[in-house]
Amino acid sequence: MADAERLICDAAALTEGGRGVRFEVEYFGEPAPAFVVRFGGTARGYLNRCSHVALELDWREGDFFGADGRDLICSAHGAVYDSASGACRGGPCNGAPLVPLRVTERDGKIFFLGFADD
Ligand code: FES
Q1: Domain count of the fold of the chain
Q2: pLDDT tens by residue, the chain, 118 residues
Q3: Residue 75 lies in a domain
Q4: Strands (E), 28-65
Q5: pTM of the entire predicted model
Q6: How far apart are alpha carbons 15 and 38 in whole angstroms?
Q7: Whose CA is nearest to atom 1 of ligand 1?
Q8: pLDDT value for 116
Q9: Residue 60: how many other CB atoms lie within 10 Å
Q10: Whose CA is nearest to atom 3 of ligand 1?
Q11: Is residue 1 part of a domain?
Q12: Of 3, 41, 56, 111, which shows the fewest CB atoms inside 10 Å?
């Protein structure tokens, strides 16, 4: 499932615990929504697909964090995910994590590198 390095956005578009940037990846041969946010000073990328039901997480486009700017919250039924790892922290995700992506920040830009298990 390797994918070529691809520009997602300017690094300045991601603020700590703020709005994320949506983009698209190929996942098992199909286009799939993904997103990147900044947490702990680092860009973190995940497939935009809840592990409870395969729905996108954001409340409004790009809004992934809960009110405290720490956890990622699914807007459909409230699953709570760890922003740094994508691990399920509570709610209907029932222990199942988000699918993590490899992203990097370089020269003021955010790039998608592939899936964590590539
Ligand atoms: S679809 Fe995300 S919590 Fe149900």
Answers
A1: 1
A2: 455 789 999 999 999 999 999 999 999 999 999 999 999 999 999 999 999 999 999 999 999 999 999 999 999 999 999 999 999 999 999 999 999 999 999 999 999 999 987 6
A3: yes
A4: 30-39, 42-47
A5: 0.94
A6: 6
A7: 53
A8: 84
A9: 7
A10: 77
A11: no
A12: 41
Backbone conformation region of residue 80, classed left if phi is above 0, alpha if psi is from -120 to 50, else beta: beta
Residue matched to tokens 């992934």: 64
Handedness of CA 88, 66, 43, 49 (dihedral sign): positive
Atom of ligand 1 nearest to the CA of 79: 3
Angstrom distances, CA of residue 81 to CA of 37, 52, 91, 93: 13, 11, 9, 8
Report the nearest atom of ligand 1 relative to the CA of 78: 3
Domain range for 57 is 6-115
Measured in Å, residue 50 CA sits from the centre of ligand 1 at 6
